[in-house]
Amino acid sequence: MSFKITDKVTWVGKIDWELRSFHGEELSTNKGSSYNSYLVRDEKTVLIDTVWAPFAEEFVEKLKKEIDLNEIDYIIAQHAEVDHSGALPLLLKEIPGTPVYCTNNGKKILKGQFHEDWNFVEVKTGDTLNIGESTLTFVEARMLHWPDNMMTYMSGENILFSNDAFGQHYASEKMYNDLVDQCELYQEAMKYYANILTPFSQLVTNKIKEVLSFNLPLNMIATAHGIIWRDNPAQIVEKYLEWADAYQENQITIVYDTMWNGTRKMAEAIAEGIRLVDGEVVVKLYNASHTDKNDVITELFKSKAMLFGSPTVNKGIINATGGLLEMISGIGFKNKKGASFGSYGWSGESTAIIQKKLEGSKIEIVQDGIKELWNPDKEAIERCIQFGKSFAEKL
Ligand code: FEO
Fold first, then answer.
1. With contact defined as beta carbons under 8 Å apart, do 52 and 82 qualify?
2. Is 79 a catalytic residue?
3. CATH number belonging to the domain at 3-243, selected among 3.30.565.10, 3.60.15.10, 3.40.50.1000, 3.20.20.70
4. 169 in active site
5. Does 153 participate in catalysis according to the annotation?
6. Are the folds of 3-243 and 253-394 the same?
7. Number of other CB atoms surrounding residue 24 within 10 Å
8. Contact, 143 vs 203, CB < 8 A?
9. Could you give the CA distance from residue 312 to residue 325 in angstroms, rounded to a whole number?
10. Are 258 and 250 spatial neighbours (Cβ–Cβ below 8 Å)?
11. Is 11 helix (H, G, I), strand (E, B) or coil?
C-alpha cells in the first residue's frame, strides 16, 4: 500500500501490525507501529526516511512500483536509528551515489551502523534544499531522541516531516489523526512521549519554541511512526508543550510486587487511606509483575505522586519493581512525590531500598516508608490506612 498525502507527497512506508516490542524489549508496542517513508515529487524527487531492516526488500520492491529508482535525486535520512534507516543499504545498492542528506551526527551513526561510505551531505538547522516549487528546510532536533535526529519542513505543501517527534506506535490503515479512535491515539501518543521523550523534555520545549518562532504555515505534521496529523496539527504541538512541562494530573499511582499478598493488602489499605482524605484524586494500583511496564510508566507520568512497594526478598526487592525503579531513574520525572512500603519476614530492607531509589530519581519523599511483618493483621492494615491518609494530607 502507498497513498498520496498531497499531490506532491506519497506515503511509501510500512505498517507493522505484528510489532509488540521495540528497542529490544525496552518498549511495548501493543498496537503495532508504522515506519513512515515519504516520496516527494517536485522538479526534483526526494525520499524522506525508509523503513526497518526486516522490511527493506518489501520496501524497495514497492518503491520500484511507485517510481524508477534512478529518478530519486536525493535521500533524506532524518534519523539513523534502524527503524528508519534500515532499508538504506539495499536501496543504495540499487542507486549508489545518490546524495544522503543527514546531520553530522547522522553521518557518524549511519557509518557506525552500516560501515558504508555513502555520498553523505551534512546539513544543519536552516540549511535548505530547493526542489522546484517547494523548498526543504532542515531543522536539527538533537537528542529528540538521538543525537542525530532532524526534521524537514516543506514549503508550499506546508508539511513538517517530524521523524520520531509527535509519533505514536500505532498501526492503522487510516493514516490520519481525524480518522482514528481519538482515545487510542491520545493514549499511544502519550505513552510514546512518557517512555521515550520525558528525559528530553527541556529540549522538547526549546525546540518547539524555536520552530514556532519561524512562524511557518503548517498543514500537516508527517511523523515517522503512526498517523499523520492533518486535522489541527498544532494540537499535538500544544500537547507536547504541556507534557514537557513537568506534566501531572490529579492521580496517585501505587506500584507493588507481592509474594503472598501481604504487600498487596498494604497497597490496598494505603489506597483506602488516600481516598478517605481526598475523594477527588484518582488512585490506581498496579502489580508490577503483572502489568506492562511501559503502561505503568505512562500512569506514573500522569501522576502527581507515586508509592512503590515490595516485600523483602534476599535483603532486596522483587525484580519487576526494581526494573521500574531503574526505568524511573533514567526517565527523570520532574515535580513528583512518593513514598515506599512493603511486607517482610525477618530482615526487612525493602522499604528503605525503595525509598533510596526514589530519592535517587529526584522523587520528593513525602514521609518515611512503612513496613509490616508477615501477613498484615487488622492493626497493621489500620496502620497502612493511616499511612495513606497522612501521605494524602502531606501532598
Ligand atoms: Fe523511530 Fe528513534 O527511531
1. yes
2. yes
3. 3.60.15.10
4. no
5. no
6. no
7. 6
8. yes
9. 15
10. no
11. strand
DSSP 248-298: --SEEEEEE--SSSHHHHHHHHHHHHHHHH-SSSEEEEEETTTS-HHHHHH
- 253-394 belongs to CATH 3.40.50.360: yes
Could you give the CA distance from residue 118 to residue 276 in angstroms, rounded to a whole number? 65
Choosing from 145, 153, 170, 344, the catalytic residue is 145
For residues 142 and 203, give the distance between their C-alpha atoms in angstroms, rounded to a whole number.
8
Count of Cβ atoms closer than 10 Å to residue 210 Cβ: 13
Burial class from Cβ neighbours inside 10 Å (0-12, 13-18, 19+) for residue 174 reads: exposed
What lines the ligand 1 site, CB under 6 Å?
79, 81, 83-84, 145-146, 164, 224-225
Place of cell 516549487: 133
How many Å apart are CA 77 and CA 141, to the nearest integer?
13
Rounded to 5°, the CA angle 260-261-262 comes to: 95
How many C-beta atoms lie closer than 10 Å to residue 287's C-beta?
18
CA dihedral 7, 13, 15, 21 (to 10 degrees): -140
| Residues of the chain predicted below pLDDT 50 | none
Return contacts of 318-325, CB within 8 angstroms, 24+ apart. 318/257, 318/259, 318/288, 318/289, 320/257, 320/288, 320/289, 320/293, 321/255, 321/256, 321/257, 321/288, 321/354, 323/288, 323/293, 324/255, 324/288, 324/293, 324/296, 324/297, 325/354, 325/357, 325/358, 325/361
> What residue spans define the domains of the chain?
3-243, 253-394
The three cell numbers locating residue 274: 488516600
Note if the pTM is more than 0.85.
yes
Closest among 192, 177, 103 to 200, alpha carbons compared: 192
Residue nearest to atom 3 of ligand 1 (CA): 81
Nearest CA to ligand 1 atom 2: 81
What value, to the nearest 5°, has the Cα angle with vertex 42 and ends 106 and 47?
A: 30
Residue the block writes with cell 532524518: 78
Using alpha carbons, list the distances in angstroms from residue 14 to 54, 79, 120, 379, 385.
11, 17, 25, 58, 51
pLDDT value, residue 23 = 86
Q: If we measure between CA atoms, which residue out of 170, 194, 181 comes closest to residue 302? A: 194
Report DSSP state, residue 62.
H
| Rounded Cα–Cα distance for residues 152 and 83 (Å) | 18
